[in-house]
Amino acid sequence: MARGDSKRQQLSEEVASYVRELIISGKVRPGEFLRMEPIAEAVGVSNTPVREGLLALSSEGFVELVPRRGFVVTPFTQQDVRDLFWVQAQLGGELAARAAKNITPEQLDELEAIVKKQDAAVKDGDEDAMVEYGHAFHRLINLAADSHRLALLLRSVVRHLPNRFYISIEGRVEATSEEHPLILEALRRRSAKMARSLMEQHILESADHLIETLEARGLWQEEREEAAPDLAGTAVTIS
């Protein structure tokens, strides 16, 4: 890829990440049209990478291109979140199972060091370090699996949620502190079955945690209000 094309792709990815966060945080709502100029100004790019970023999001289902009108935000539901994490759980579980067979003693020692550093970060209340070591833990397992194509597929799914939402996932401090050492022990035992099961559970439970976080931020509040019956104006007949 030429240097200019690489730079343009990077800019369009920055746009896509910015707009994903707007959608998932509820700052823009389903049915709302996205104007290119404010997005270009916010990200600091021209309209060309904005359009390319929005086209990428249309392929992911976050927006839809309406002829002669522009890009409109599509609904993003709790089930969408669960579906994203279900796919991640399947891919992550398979990578963990392969890592159990392929991981080297040196990589196991490195994983153990990461777990200890993450525990220290938890005790210190260092959220940035918690997230850093949480990501490092998963990256090393994916690397140890020695399945480059599968890891790329997982990365493409992970990109559907902005990084700051994964911060809230790794913020499951107590759960992560318990689950990562269990996954490490499964890898030490070379138990592919146990590693797969623990990794799948670890990822799927993160979905519920993220949904709770997004609900607390009011992402689906309007949908709940619209779905709630107007009991005050409804006559109830008892026979």
Automatic annotation (TrEMBL):
Q: Which InterPro entries match?
A: GntR_C (IPR011711), TF_FadR/GntR_C (IPR008920), Tscrpt_reg_HTH_GntR (IPR000524), WH-like_DNA-bd_sf (IPR036388), WH_DNA-bd_sf (IPR036390)
Annotated ranges, domain HTH gntR-type? 9-76
**Which Gene3D superfamilies does the record match to this protein?**
GntR ligand-binding domain-like (1.20.120.530), Winged helix-like DNA-binding domain superfamily/Winged helix DNA-binding domain (1.10.10.10)
Keywords attached to this Swiss-Prot or TrEMBL record, sorted alphabetically, are: DNA-binding, Transcription, Transcription regulation
Q: Name one Pfam family in it.
A: GntR
Q: Which SMART domains match?
A: FCD, HTH_GNTR
Q: What is this protein called?
A: GntR family transcriptional regulator
Q: Which organism is it from?
A: Streptomyces cinereoruber
Lineage of the species this protein comes from: Bacteria, Bacillati, Actinomycetota, Actinomycetes, Kitasatosporales
